[in-house]
């Protein structure tokens, strides 16, 4: 696990609390948000030109809640999540914005301003903010036992002996629903099923009791039954440990089941943001409406599913005005196709949308 070894802090830092111990109540002065992102910009220099993968993204994560970041493949969801952990590599670069992280028991820090070699980012990454990566089949090292991989994460961030780390690893494997963890800890990933490997990934991510867990498409390549089990496990652990979760997904069914708040992304920008009930019941951006309308409903007769016309433009050739206007059913010439992209504006208390006609239109979705 060379990637994990690179995360080791250069000097001792405060050890996080035990994963089996819920956090104590917050003092009255603590921020209600654990993460606040404002105007985040991540650009990539390519042969075709500057690719603005994330262009002015902003949202807040409430402490102890699940925030879903939703959108089609290529919209910038994963780049946003990698930025939070400062894992963007060349030719990509964070060129602007702020990412204020408010730990429970430490001073706030702007992750966007930290250098890649800063000791604090080593402390945060894997300790305070952890991540479940896509593809459980390949995310684990095939040449190390699952026990060694989990123990390595513990030893990096906590002052414990190898024996104590092994006890913690066994406890965490049991907590994520793996039977016989004393034996499983000596197994290699290839000896486990896809669902079992994903449980190991969850155990590794939560073993240091992070304040934020980033779950990037956590059910990719798993069958439907296992997907449901994994999502239920994550939800139960989130409630038990008080961890905030940033859920990266394109599956709105998972969003309905898991999320408290939702931010919808399109072409590197947030186009709508609100609590999950408002988004699912009364979307205000045409793109969100299109995503929801394309889902099959249980009460539907034999009829064609709704689809969003056209295709997603290239990030190197984004149309003027609203980037969604070539595909929008509510497109108004001379309004939607000129000027700069519309900013996120509050349409209703706690509900923002980046649409010039958001006050005129309202989606009514009855599938949830």
Number of strands: 12
Describe the global form. globular
Oligomerization category of the chains in this entry: single chain
User: What is the H/E string?
Assistant: HEEEHEEHEHHHHHEHEHEEHHEE
pLDDT averaged residue by residue: 87
Number of domains: 2
Provide the CATH topology of the largest domain.
Rossmann fold
Q: Which segments are poorly predicted (pLDDT under 50) over 5 or more consecutive residues?
A: 1-30
**Roughly how many Å is the radius of gyration?**
21 Å
CATH superfamily of the largest domain: P-loop containing nucleotide triphosphate hydrolases
H/I helix tally: 12
Q: What structural class is derived from the secondary structure elements?
A: alpha/beta
What's the level 1 CATH class of the largest domain?
A: Alpha Beta
The rounded distance between the terminal residues' Cα atoms is 42 Å
Q: Determine the fraction of residues in helical runs and give it as a percent range.
A: 25-40%
Can you tell me the CATH architecture of the largest domain? 3-Layer(aba) Sandwich
Adjacency order of strands in the biggest sheet: 6-7-8-3-9-10-12-11
The major beta sheet can be summarized as: 8 strands, mixed
Range of strand content: 15-25%
């Amino acid at each position: 696990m060379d990637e994990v070894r690179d995360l080791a802090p250069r000097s001792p830092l405060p050890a996080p609390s035990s994963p089996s111990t819920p956090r104590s109540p917050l003092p009255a002065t603590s921020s209600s948000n654990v993460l606040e992102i404002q105007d985040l910009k991540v650009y990539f220099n390519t042969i075709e030109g500057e690719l603005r993968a994330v262009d002015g993204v902003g949202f807040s994560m409430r402490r102890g809640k699940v925030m879903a970041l939703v959108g089609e493949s290529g919209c910038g969801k994963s780049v946003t999540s990698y930025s939070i952990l400062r894992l963007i590599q060349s030719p990509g670069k964070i060129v602007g914005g702020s990412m204020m992280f408010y730990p429970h028991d430490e001073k706030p820090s702007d992750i966007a301003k930290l250098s890649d070699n800063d000791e604090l980012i080593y402390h945060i990454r894997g300790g305070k903010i952890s991540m479940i990566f896509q593809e459980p089949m390949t995310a684990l090292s095939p040449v190390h036992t699952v026990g060694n991989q989990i123990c390595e994460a513990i030893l990096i961030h906590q002052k414990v002996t190898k024996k104590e780390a092994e006890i913690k690893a066994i406890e965490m494997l049991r907590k994520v629903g793996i039977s016989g963890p004393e034996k499983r800890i000596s197994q290699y990933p290839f000896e486990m099923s896809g669902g079992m490997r994903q449980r190991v990934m969850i155990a590794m991510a939560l073993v240091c009791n992070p304040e934020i867990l980033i779950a990037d498409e956590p059910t990719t390549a798993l069958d439907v039954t296992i997907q449901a089990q994994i999502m239920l496990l994550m939800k139960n652990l989130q409630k038990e440990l008080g961890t905030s979760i940033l859920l990266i997904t394109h599956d709105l069914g998972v969003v309905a089941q898991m999320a408290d708040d939702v931010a919808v992304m399109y072409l590197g920008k947030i186009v709508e943001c609100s609590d999950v009930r408002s988004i699912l019941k009364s979307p205000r951006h045409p793109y969100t409406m299109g995503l929801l309308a394309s889902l099959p409903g249980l009460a539907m007769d034999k009829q064609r599913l709704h689809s969003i016309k056209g295709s997603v433009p290239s990030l190197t050739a984004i149309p003027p005005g609203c980037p969604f206007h070539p595909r929008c059913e509510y497109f108004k010439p001379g309004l939607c196709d000129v000027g700069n992209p519309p900013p996120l504006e509050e349409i209703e208390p706690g509900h923002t949308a980046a649409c010039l006609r958001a006050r005129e239109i309202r989606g009514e979705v009855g599938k949830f």
